[in-house]
Amino acid sequence: MKSFLITFKPSSESPERGWPLQDLQKLAGRHLRHGKVEDSWRFHNRKEVSVGDRVFLLLQGKAGPAIIGYGSVARASAKDKAARSVVVRFDALTDPTKQVLVTKEALRLIDGAQSLWRTQASGVRIPDDTAAALEKLVAETSAKAGKGVSSGNLIDGKTPESNKLLKSAPTYVQRQTKRVLFARVGWMRGYRGPQPDDEKPIGGGKYNKAGLGHEAFNFKPIDGKVMGYFQPQMQPKTRRKSHPSKIVLEKIEPRFAGDLLDKVLVVFVARNPVEGGQYLVGWYKNAVVHRLEKHSSASQRNRFGYFIETNSADAVLVPVGRRTFEVPRGKGGFGQANICYPFTNRAGQPKQGNWMDEALAYISSYQHEDAVQHPTSETDPDISEMIEATIERAAGYQSNPRIRKAIENYSMQWAYRRLKELGLSPVPKYKTNPYDFLCTASGADLYVEVKGTQQDGRCISLTPNEVAHVKEHKNSALFIVYGLTVKGKRSPRVSGGEELFLPKWDISSGQLEPRGFAFTLPESAFESKEVAKQN
After folding, report:
1. How far apart, in whole angstroms, are the C-alpha atoms of residue 432 and residue 96?
2. Can you spell out the DSSP letters for 125-172?
């Protein structure tokens, strides 16, 4: 088996010979979702190539050299025979703005290979000893960091001095040292039992179609506890009594032999019935996971059984408007079963897939609303959207959820480009934090909130969480993209606009108006009613 080196250089650095970074990122995204991906690649000498030969993808340019892909030759390309292209099946492929497989420092340590990293051709033969060293480095990186090493801001060549020596991503180490379990449930807004607008879980198994899925109460606190249910693989009716559904605890903690496992992070995933795709909806920290279903006498949860329990203070439910972390399906993702373990067997063989590591990073950095600790906050994002829509309609502009989303995406991209031009090194944080970008200004952190609107930008909507963060952090900034033009309702297209950037945002300098309040009654208000019932 021979080995070959193919190359990638961003078109922003080499317009004639380069390839758009966005295209590579899309390819890496497809790999993340499906576990493998194929693409045609030009080879210097296709006649020397055989199906099954090893292929390494080399990142060149300011960010390189670094290995960002690994795979094998699948077949000759039927599309472009004259250009000497072959189809490469990638077993590993990373977005170089986020991570790499082998760093430039590691490549420089391979004896006699320095001229190889400077090659101008794609598809050149790699000496066997160099190929063996590369394969070993890729395998070591996969074992340590879940197929990747954090790359900082590599693609722009602006990596801080402190990040010159790239550090292994910590999330995979967490997956090896922290007990983790992923469980699929039906989709609900609150998981606090049947409510008028949230009657039962949607999806999550055949039982939920006719009955009330037990996960309906997964985030309902009862005496300081929450009890979670999901349906592991169900046995045929004739075998259920003798072979009940169970959780294989050994795939959470290799070689474990007991009937309950504590200190587990349990992550709940559900399919969005409106938009499609499956998303992370909440999690239990420090949970106890039982091998077999436990019975419950709690009437507040219909005496439904459970597999998982934890203190309610350790439970987090993501509001519907914040459920943005999509979990891939199929091979390498969360498959058809309702349970996904971090290990493929009882001996501790790690399951491949960067999405698990990214989910752990998402959970550890999440600072948005928590609908368990503050149930009324579940609607905060929705209320903010309603206020913004009302402001725009009052000014004579059309507005609906699709338009608001298109405006948000357009404004975020505008702000990101502009902040980058200003040398503020923006890092997106909007998925997990109550601000949109973390920037660096004069060596200090700067929290940037971005808002987009069709009107003149003099009035914007904020969630309570956003207001609290600005009040607590004086190093906050506001970036408004206003005067936008929108065409179309079903597939809106946004254009035009102007910007206003306030690098020192003092929220007290403007007028902050509450548009609504949530009042929680004290327990004493119901005590007299309970006493009256007893009498």
Report:
1. 22
2. EPPHHHHHHHHHHHHHHHHHHSS-EE-TTGGGT---GGGSSPPBPHHH
Is-contact 499 413, C-beta < 8 A? no
**Cα dihedral sign for 416, 419, 420, 421?**
positive
| pLDDT winner (highest mean) among 23-37, 165-179, 390-404 | 23-37
pLDDT (tens digit, 9 = 90+) per residue, 329-359?
A: 877 788 888 999 988 766 667 776 678 888 8
Give the torsion through C-alpha atoms of 288, 290, 295, 297, to 10 deg. Answer: -10
Question: What is the per-residue pLDDT for 242?
Answer: 67
- Those residues whose C-beta lies under 8 Å from the C-beta of residue 388, and which sit 6 or more positions away, are 399, 404, 453, 460, 461
Domains in the chain: ranges and CATH: 3-165 (3.10.590), 175-373 (no CATH), 378-509 (3.40.1350)
Task: State how far the Cα of 71 lies from the Cα of 37, in Å rounded to an integer.
Answer: 9
Q: Tell me the whole-structure pTM to 2 decimals.
A: 0.57
Residue 88 has pLDDT above 80, yes or no: yes
What does the pLDDT average to over 164-183? 53
Q: What is the C-alpha to C-alpha distance for residues 402 and 393, in angstroms, rounded to an integer?
A: 15
* Side-chain-facing half-sphere of 216: CA atoms under 13 Å: 20
Strands 427-428 and 437-441: antiparallel
**Token representation of residue 104:** 């430039």
